[in-house]
Amino acid sequence: MKIGLLGCGNVGSAFIKLLIDNRESIKERCGEDLELAAVVVRDLDRERPEWVDPALLTTDARSVVLAPDIDLIVEVIGDVTASKELIEAALQASKSVVTANKALLAESYFELEDLAETVGKDIFFEAAVAGGIPLIRSLRVSLVGERLSRVTGIVNGTTNFILTRMYEENLSFSAALKLAQELGYVEADPRADLEGFDAAAKAAILASIAFGRKVRFNDVQCEGIVHVRESDVNFARRHGFVVKLLAQCERIVVRSEDDEFSVRVFPALLPETHPLAAVRDAFNAVFVEGEAVGELMFYGRGAGGLPTASAVMGDVIDAAQNLRFGSTERRTRTKDARIVDYARLTSQFYVSVEVVDEPGVLASVAEIFGANEVSISSMEQIGLADEARLVFLTHPTTEGSIARTLEGLRRLRTVKEIGHSMRVVTEG
Amino acid sequence: MKIGLLGCGNVGSAFIKLLIDNRESIKERCGEDLELAAVVVRDLDRERPEWVDPALLTTDARSVVLAPDIDLIVEVIGDVTASKELIEAALQASKSVVTANKALLAESYFELEDLAETVGKDIFFEAAVAGGIPLIRSLRVSLVGERLSRVTGIVNGTTNFILTRMYEENLSFSAALKLAQELGYVEADPRADLEGFDAAAKAAILASIAFGRKVRFNDVQCEGIVHVRESDVNFARRHGFVVKLLAQCERIVVRSEDDEFSVRVFPALLPETHPLAAVRDAFNAVFVEGEAVGELMFYGRGAGGLPTASAVMGDVIDAAQNLRFGSTERRTRTKDARIVDYARLTSQFYVSVEVVDEPGVLASVAEIFGANEVSISSMEQIGLADEARLVFLTHPTTEGSIARTLEGLRRLRTVKEIGHSMRVVTEG
How many degrees, rounded to 5, is the angle at CA B194 between CA B188 and CA B198? Predict the structure, then answer.
């Protein structure tokens, strides 16, 4: 079984190492003899780890994806446009494809899957969501007969690292971000992580697989962590919560119609006792709830060369066995997901408001909540210099009501600033 | 695709319910139309849930496993002897088999797997270890290219429930056992759970799959929880540990020879911060460590009709797709695992000794530790009526040294009783 590898960065070179170290044991255990036939790179002269055979290197990607003796293409370039063309060419040339490219999948998942189905080959992408955790195959195969109600994940290691440091070391957002940058956890352009787009791309893939419906990146309601402040995290800690950036995919059962789905990314207050609350630093975890299976959790490393390469290797072996038998994993998603009207969703909310410290202010603020039918569960007033911070936890209310409440508060003369409002996720 | 179901108890009837509720969505998502063709029961007259079609019931198991129009046999009887004959007959008649029978697998795993390989069909058993958790497929497929170093599981819900109640509610072993019995968590004969045999059967299966070597039930060193006392659990709690019954499979790297493996079941002191420490009551979890993938954890319900039926359903769909393509999952385990000499393994130990409270006792006890080269990390003396309890945590030492120490202590006149000695599992 001959493999063409596109890309030889962090993940690509780790994959080569794994292949060299484990080729014999894979042959013994699965009967697959995996041979690396070519490695496509941009720059032939760049220094590579000593286990990368220079004789395999080439800059000619097209001839690799079209080579008649190559059976399987592994794509770990990351770039969206170039990767898409190469993967399409590979599938059209009847090769199976393994990719770790979540940005590409977020844009072109269904298109590529349809093409794979047409040519009768596989496209696998375990590494695209939650790195080394065997999550995608579990959802695609083991749980495909299960009616899942909710999938809640911590799927972005960078933001989870920042929130963990804010929580555990009392760091400000910018100090925690700086620490993450020093440790190399942050991309050159940090927006995809910090504004939740990376998590949203993964949420769309997760929801599509979990519910068997097409969910697109643009269907995902997305909010990042750039507005989370020390004071928010401190409040959470004092009240038995942690703050986590969640990717949450939910089935909303609508009577006598097809189900609707909500797919969202948002920072949330999560009870300390929730299994996801213990997921620290750059680790990932996904909590899955199903009607028959109950609660499941998958936990592990969401990024890094070796864990990602490990997930790629699992896909390669699975795809190789399918190629040998002429079989393929058939998973069709013919229907678009009906996306819920997000304004109708309900949850508890955390709302923090900075006000002028003068008589009557609390009453005027509370009135706005009441006028929008938002019921308050608890309130805390924190005195600052010549102002005060009012922090509210609400009873369950709709997104629409909260939006109108914040709008109303913004118009009050006595309100100086409205901090971050965050959803409170309760257990189960 | 026609299914013959052997057994219609808790799991069997839950499986029928799942099949009825999800048949359409499975057809839509995987293209498999799963039809229940026959249900083998012992007693036709017993009352069944209303969703079980009486027309499908039969007592003639052999004609079902041999029926030419049945493609796939699901075995959820549980009985070892009868199940084995039926599964063999089904495989010989070229049917794929899904089973949840861990006791059978512990005895006959390799034999049945070889038979499946010979006839070119599948035998799947996701439900046999850790119930609804998609663990087996993750190890067999996703992680088959990974060099795993250690697999540590909480795989018996009954004992985990008992230990959780002892820890959280200060119950004695017998009070916690009584509570578990009242809740229906305990089998008529509780020994398989309490003495660790159930966990040992699962450990043998886990180790075989994780390491790609044959590990048999008799290879597993096994110790249960019947000797764990309130005072042991209290000591653990005071010192930041929990007590858990662990199934631990380890690769012991031996220079210039084939690796050796240790596969053990034992109650252990586990740091509160370990991911497995938070696994409460009847939940199961398995912590997996690999060279490339790093740390993974799988968590969920280890038992119960619906979670088990969910795992069976995942296997059925996978096997059905393989049947359609004429493919099969090839996983050969040709070599026996080299089992380590257990006496050479090292760990830290907890040792509790009840002694006569008189001068010089501590010195004589400590001398026995020293004479066997066991170094003490900490000691606590707890005064009782006319005696005292000495509790030791040792530095890492061998199993052999601890066995000799306990033997020496037993011979001391001043030692009244030696309590449970338990391994202390440190992080990573």
Answer: 85
Q: Please spell the DSSP secondary structure of B165-209, one letter per residue.
A: HHHHH---HHHHHHHHHHTT-S-SSTHHHHTSHHHHHHHHHHHHH
- Is residue B398 within 8 Å of B252, Cβ to Cβ? no
- Across the A/B interface, how many CB contacts are shorter than 8 Å? 207
Residues in chain A: 428
The mean pLDDT value of chain B amounts to: 93
CB atoms within 10 A of CB A235: 22
- What is the count of structural domains for chain A? 3
The pLDDT tens digits of the residues spanning B18-70 come to: 999 999 989 988 888 999 999 999 999 999 999 999 999 999 999 999 999 99
Catalytic residue among B84, B95, B102, B202: B202
What is the edge-to-edge ordering of all strands in the sheet holding B72-75?
Answer: B57-58, B35-40, B2-6, B72-75, B96-99, B123-124
Q: Which residue of B has its CA nearest to A132?
A: B293
Q: What is the CATH number of the domain that holds B192?
A: 3.30.360.10
Tokens of B329: 């999952």
Cβ separation of B145 and A311 shorter than 8 Å?
A: no
Residue B143 near chain A (CB below 8 Å): yes
The residue with tokens 């269904």 is A110
B349 and chain A in contact, CB less than 8 A: no
Considering the domain architecture, whether residues A317 and A375 belong to the same structural domain is answered as no
Could you report the per-residue pLDDT of A190-238, keeping only the tens digit for each? 999 999 999 999 999 999 999 999 999 999 999 999 999 999 999 999 9
A157 & A195 share domain: yes
The answer to whether B102 is a known catalytic residue is no
Mean pLDDT of B270-296: 95
Name, in order, each residue with C-beta under 8 angstroms of B31's C-beta and a sequence gap of 6 or more. Answer: A330, A332
- pLDDT of the residue at B427: 65
Question: Which of these, A378, A311, A399, A308, lies nearest to A9 by C-alpha position?
Answer: A308
Nearest of A260, A182, A266, A259 to residue A224 by alpha carbon: A266
Q: How far is CA B101 from the centre of its chain?
A: 12
CATH number for the domain spanning B395: value is 3.30.70.260
Domain extent for B219: 146-301
Q: What is the pTM of this model?
A: 0.94
DSSP three-state, residue B285:
strand
| Local structure of B136: helix, strand or coil | helix
| Residue A26 burial by Cβ neighbours in a 10 Å radius (0-12, 13-18, 19+) | buried
Is B250 a domain residue? yes
Pair B118, B184 in one domain = no
Length of chain B: 428
User: Residue B138: inside a domain, yes or no?
Assistant: no
A376/A366 Cα distance (integer angstroms): 9
Q: Is residue B335 part of a domain?
A: no
State how far the Cα of A14 lies from the Cα of A20, in Å rounded to an integer. 10
In a mutational test of the B interface, the residue from A121, A293, A316 whose CB has the highest number of chain B CBs within 10 Å is A293
Contacts of B331 in chain A (CB under 8 A): 29-30
For residue B122, list chain A residues with Cβ-Cβ distance below 8 A: none
Q: What is the pLDDT of residues A266-300, one digit of tens each?
A: 999 999 989 999 999 999 999 999 999 999 999 99
- Indicate if B33 and B118 belong to the same structural domain: yes
Q: A134: which residues sit within 8 A by CB, 6+ positions away?
A: A126, A298, A311, A314, B134, B138, B141, B142, B143, B296
Q: Give the integer Cα–Cα distance in Å for A150 and A298.
A: 14
For A166, the token pair is 């804010």
Q: Which of A306, A140, A318, A154 is nearest to B134 (CA)?
A: A140
Looking at the fold, whether B68 and B182 belong to one and the same domain comes out as no
Average pLDDT, chain A: 93
**Residue A366: phi, psi to the nearest 5?**
-60, -35
What ipTM score was computed for the predicted complex, to two decimals? Answer: 0.92
